[in-house]
Amino acid sequence: MCAAPEDATRARRAFIALGSNLGDRRAELARAVAGLRARGDVTAVSPLYETDPVGGPEGQPAYLNLVVELCTSDGPRALLERCRALEEAARRVRTVRFGPRTLDADVLLVGDESVDEPDLFVPHPRMWGRRFVLAPLRDLAPELVPAGALERAEGEVRRIGTL
Ligand code: GSY
Questions:
Q1: 81, part of any domain
Q2: How sure is the predictor about 99, in pLDDT bands with cuts at 50, 70 and 90?
Q3: Distance from the CA of 155 to the center of ligand 1, in angstroms?
Q4: Is residue 70, in this structure, part of any structural domain at all?
Q5: What percent of the chain is predicted at pLDDT more than 90?
Q6: C-alpha 114 – ligand 1 centre gap (Å)
């Protein structure tokens, strides 16, 4: 439970993953974090990681990844809309599936809610196998990452500081 400023009853702890491997990656992430902060419900930003691409075409550039924590009364769909707006603002064009992108924003967790809809799954279905998600998530919320999950997950990650 998180203490929300205006509506403590509906506020939940939520986590959004951000990644970029095209253009000025750090600037893309900084713009996205600023966009999320505009609503006033961001409570923490993880350290920044440079990460090997998982999936997608061979030879993609490395990603920068981080996780943002919110204490929010927004539900999963409202958070998805915020993520999509950030991706649009970054002029992300979907070409190759899992290919390079200026910005990827994914809803990971929203309190203990589960959503299973055609365009929205919460918890994010692939998060438990991806080190680029679990490493920054563990920095913010170690109790949410099961023992051994980070070690079993795919992809090398290097913590490179903060945004
Ligand atoms: O799912 C998010 C986009 N993405 C990433 C990413 O953000 N980081 C790394 N390291 N690999 C990725 N593959 C995909 S798809």
A1: yes
A2: confident
A3: 10
A4: yes
A5: 85
A6: 22
